[in-house]
Amino acid sequence: MKHFSFLLLFGWVLLLAYPGRAQQGSLLTGTIKDEKGAVVGFTTVAVLKAPATTSVTGTVADANGRFQLQAPTAGTYRLRLSAVGYLPKETAFELSPTTPGHDFGVLTLQVDAKQLAEVNVVGLRPTIVQEADRMVVTVEGTAMAAGNTAFDVLVKSPGVFVDQDGNIQLNGKSGVTVMLDGRLTYLSARELRSMLEGMPAANLKNIEIITNPPAKYDAEGTSGILNLNLKQNTQRGLNGSVYASSNYNFQQLGHTYGASLNAKQEKWSGFLTLDASRRVGGRDATFTRVFYAEQRTTYFEQQATGNFVSKSPPVVRLGADYNLSKRHSVGFMAGYTFRKGESDFLTDTYLGSSPQEPSRYIDADNFSRTTYRNFTGNLHYNGQLDTAGTTLTADLDLVRIDNQGQADFYNLFTDLSTDQLTRNVEYTNTGSELSIYAGKVDFTRPLAAGHKLEAGVKVSQVTADNDSRFYFNNGVLVLDPLRTNYFIYRENIQAAYLNWSGKATEQLKLQAGLRLENTHSLGESYTTGQATRRRYLNLFPSVFAQQQITKDYELGFSYSRRLNRPNYGSLNPFRFYRDPYTYEEGNPYLRPQYTQAFRLTHTLRKVYSLAFNYDYQTAVISEVPILDVEAATTKYTTDNLDTGHILGLTAVAPYKLAKWWDTQNTAVVSYRKFSTNATNGFLTNEQLYYMLQSNHTLLLPSKVRLEIEARYLGPTASGLYQIKPMHWVGLALKRSFLQEKLDVSMNVNDLFKGYRYRFSTNINGNVNEFNQYFRFRSVGLTLRYNFSKGGKVETKRRNTNLEEVNRAG
């Protein structure tokens, strides 16, 4: 490890020692600011051939107002700048063989007072642009951004689905990474949903859907990345919003409320968000199992009901940036979450040799209490090393998570042939602490002819401390050593990457990268003395190409290799009790899953797209039921299947049915096959899967907006499970009042209760089925008031990520 860390440091020193200025050559460069000296990010830059008005080339300035693009041939041109809220600006310039490029220095835009007074939103649907390595859904300036939340926009993005608990699927695959401005949120799925529901969509600039992430991102994760880029805060002084919402799932009432504030004074800017909630939920389920033993057959029939309530005082997130100079800034971000939860899981179980003639009845009632704390901290630096756009960023991250739980298990056994009763009470006390330390440095250097080089290093250290104790509680607590475990997991990762992008020709864009990750891990059970040590060094290449075939047709190709490391909790060999015949057990021998992803994308008129994809997976991480047919018990564990194959296509087709009626449509069709040769023998699971999604936005009279979300998911294969079809219909009515400052929305989720989980496995003839509904159907009301005051300011954007937190859940 020492030698590897030294090589990373030595390579980085060499990179920084290289001269810090890009070759100017035939580049057009400059920085865009407003009248007060604040940068104007994401300005459209167009080069016009004088005296014609047709653009010959162009680009978009970055978040710091800088731009660079390949200069055209010698001649007289005009540079045109345009940005929302500013007057257009044109500048004439000449190019010649002796001066093939031009540095415009600082270009100043004037505020358009008329546009600031009134913004007329005319587009219903966000525009979609297919780039070489991602799809970009532009939200700014559309009706979708008015009166909606960031969560509303996310769930209407192509191929995205989010359930009530915040679990996200992309094109039918779970395990999606969500970032804000390239930075992970460090939140659980439910907390992430709460944060996005509290964020106005007007804060969003765009959403990047990255199905095959390039080398700059961590190799962890095979389902893709959703990166929500926020608009720059353009208000001096104080601005923000307050909101409150309530929802009812026809059994429980929940609510959330909060506020977001942004402030700016001279050289510093900051933000503060507060989100408090009472989250509720539950499930109604049926579990059916059939065990075929040598001497007998056992039928297991179980009815279950679960409820939970999670209460959280205001979750606090805050941050600030300070400009050391025009080119250098430092800042911090911090967050604290405290949550208490209570839940129950009540089951009635019948066992017997026939489903009509049970011989035993078990009334099992489980009650649990949890206390959860999450602290995140970040220090960052952002520097512009020259006027050509060379940048250096650095981040230090700290995450501390403490999760304490207690549970009581009351089991009443009845022999139905004799009516004899037996009572058994058990108790568990589980505590887990997670610490993550990470540091990274990223370097970007523009090169000649519009090419760009990116490089970086990252080091992280993770410690997961789990002390789980199980007791018999029949009058006095007696420790059960077979179901008690003290487990500590330690992991160190060192990573480095190099990424190049540029144009091979005017019609062909290329990008290639290579990421190296070195992982050392040690899992130790102090109860059993078992230790599992792993060391693996991996290379993760990525290649992207985008060819402009005609004016209206583009063809793109991408390839990447990625991995999924095991969830920290899945490595803990502790047995998590569910009922006397069911438990979950971690697997310290879990190995990382590897995926090679190929994607071919056709884009027509920059609107319609059709993508063919093939994923080849090895050591697939999946839940596996292990059956003890003689004892009629089931152990659920996480194991590695041998291989997985996913072959399919994804079509995106937005369509305007009328001036006031817009739609966004996505279809996914794929063939999935998983196979393994493990404890249960050789097993194969395959299925043709399809998903249809259609989102509708209708502008009704009196400025009322109706939004409809409809989705149908066909049968699919996931690991060893067969999943039956499910569907979802959601409605929302929205209207703004008080000169667009007050937004009111009413919504209904899962109108027909169609989003029901029905899974099954058939292992050597033994049946394991479950049918669960998680009370997704609900009605809700949300009020949001937006306020703003002040002039234009500058805020910084950072582009880092921390994938280690995603594996804590």
From TrEMBL:
Keyword ATP-binding: no
Protein name stated in the entry: TonB-dependent receptor family protein
Localization: Cell outer membrane
Sorted UniProt keywords: Cell outer membrane, Membrane, Receptor
Top-level taxonomy: Bacteria, Pseudomonadati, Bacteroidota, Cytophagia, Cytophagales
SUPFAM superfamilies, per the entry: Porins, Starch-binding domain-like
Domain Outer membrane protein beta-barrel: 384-785
Membrane recorded as keyword: yes
TM stretches of this protein: none
UniProt cross-references to PANTHER family, sorted A to Z: PLUG DOMAIN-CONTAINING PROTEIN, TONB-DEPENDENT RECEPTOR-LIKE BETA-BARREL DOMAIN-CONTAINING PROTEIN
Organism: Hymenobacter lucidus
